[in-house]
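USER:
I wish I could look at a protein chain and see how it folds. I am handing you a single protein, as its sequence and its fold in token form. As I understand it, each token names a local backbone shape. I hope you can help me see how the letters and the tokens relate. The protein I mean follows directly.
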Amino acid sequence: MPRAHEIDYEIIGDDLQIVEIELDPGETVIAEAGGMNYMEDDIQFETRMGDGSQPGGGFMSALKNIGKRMLTGESLFMTHFTHRGNTGKRRVAFAAPYPGKIIPMRLSELGGEIICEKDAFLCAALGTEVGIAFNRKLGTGFFGGEGFILQRLRGDGLVFVHAGGTIVKKELRGGTLRVDTGCLVAMTSGINYDIQRAGNLKSMVFGGEGLFLATLSGHGTVWLQSLPFSRLADRILANAPSAGGSSTGEGSVLGGLGRMLDGK
């Protein structure tokens, strides 16, 4: 595998972060379509099929990569941002899609590969392979929730993934960790991932923690998020006004009645 471009970066902000990538002439960063926030002069972008990690792979290789991205529900295209000038450094920035953190990871320090949830990838140095990782066990496929289809990022350069809320980094040394399936952000290749039933039938039905939990074991690093996007979306929908425009009113005892009295 060719070496990835050596890029520099700065993460700006706290909860709605931006990662600003600094490119030397000829350097390229790849990103999901629609993730760019701003860019300076001399940076040109081009939308291509695939991640560009295997430029000599030919048509069949490109077709295989396209098929993998279709299975993840991602766009068939990725955008390549390249510094086309002759001198100086130029910057391009990518914004987090919802409140959370951007996590920089150097793949050469993580065994050359990480597995992450399918929507976590934000951008990476050119030369990074963005693929998918199927889980082999039948139970994982049917009940894994967000964890059914995972992304595999391979290479030796910098990648940036995004996660919701607060990020917790756990080191496993032969132990086991059980987490909500939506709370897993990423893990190194030495971690075994499986889905197990969440306790007895009573706990599964009335516990409020979902029917199944992800079980992580082995040796390696795991990144967890406190606020999966699916959980955030559920809370927003649950508190959104109905089609008739009524809602419960945040922090109000009177709620909708109070707004009627106010003439709203």
Q: What stands out?
A: Residues 138-147, 257-261 have pLDDT under 50 and may be disordered. The helical segments are 58-72, 138-143, 201-206, 229-239, 256-261. The CA atoms of residues 55 and 248 lie 55 Å apart. The first strand starts at residue 8 and ends at 12.
